[in-house]
Write a structure and sequence with these properties.
Layout lengths: L11 E10 L9 H17 L6 E11 L1 E10 L17 H13 L12 E6 L8 H9 L1 H5 L1 E7 L5 H7 L8 E3 L2 H20 L17 H4 L4
Parallel strand pairs: 1-2, 1-4, 4-5, 5-6
Antiparallel strand pairs: 2-3
């Protein structure tokens, strides 16, 4: 067997899917600006990771006024630039859930060889469309049940009951962001957890997220 007979084994995908509330209420108190910076930083960090064991992929679904697949699920190292999000309109979370379910169950986009996905829901308000059916379809889907589902409640007006039911991390069923600074703090913690998973020889095994709201801003190197 010659050298040309060997084929490099490609890294298995590790999907990270973010469902982001971009409704009008996210436009106040610097929340959308913090989210934009957090997502940009996360994608940049993922893109720099080694792909020896896992290839981190990122997808972004936004719900504000309408529902958009703002960023199709793509290898992080191939994502060039990040188009900032705008905050406007109502909160069609149910429609976003249906889009996420379709994405998770599409085996052409997420092949069977992929590692356990990470699905992140962030919101500062209550859904303004039908939520019961879409929520049940998402959380009962085979792949969503196997995924690591995380939820971030922003401020005091979020639907914490719904967000808590969405999360399936028994140690931290719901994360809180008291202000815009905490949004970046949370995403940095998630980034560290996912990067640790991608370097592991067992990337499907969850890694604890070390997140503490209200951390010192100096430690976060905030620039907004």
């Amino acid at each position: 067997m010659g050298i040309g007979d060997f084929v490099a084994k490609s890294a298995r995908p590790l999907p990270v899917i973010v469902l982001a509330d971009t409704s009008g209420s996210m436009s106040v108190d610097g929340k959308i600006e913090a989210l934009n910076q957090a997502l940009k930083d996360m994608i940049g960090s993922f893109g720099q990771e080694s792909r020896m064991h896992a290839e981190i992929q990122v997808g972004l679904i936004t719900f504000g006024g309408g529902v958009t697949q703002h960023l199709p699920l793509s290898p992080a190292h191939q994502i060039e630039g990040f188009k900032p999000l705008d905050a406007t309109g109502r909160t069609p979370m149910g429609e976003a859930f249906d889009m996420a379910t379709a994405l998770l169950e599409d085996k052409e986009i997420i092949p069977s060889r992929a590692y356990r996905p990470v699905v992140i829901l962030i919101s500062d308000g209550h859904p303004t469309d039908d939520i019961k059916g879409p929520f049940e379809r998402l959380t009962s889907s085979e792949r969503a049940q196997k995924a690591t589902r995380l939820a971030l409640s922003i401020g005091s007006d979020a639907d914490e009951s719904l967000l808590r039911d969405f999360g399936n991390d028994l140690e931290a069923p719901l994360f809180h962001a008291n202000d815009a600074h905490d949004i970046r703090n949370f995403f940095r913690a998630v980034t560290m957890s996912v990067c640790t998973r991608s370097r592991s020889t067992k990337p499907s095994e969850p890694v604890k997220i070390e997140y503490q709201p209200g951390a010192d801003d100096d430690l976060l190197d905030l620039d907004f």
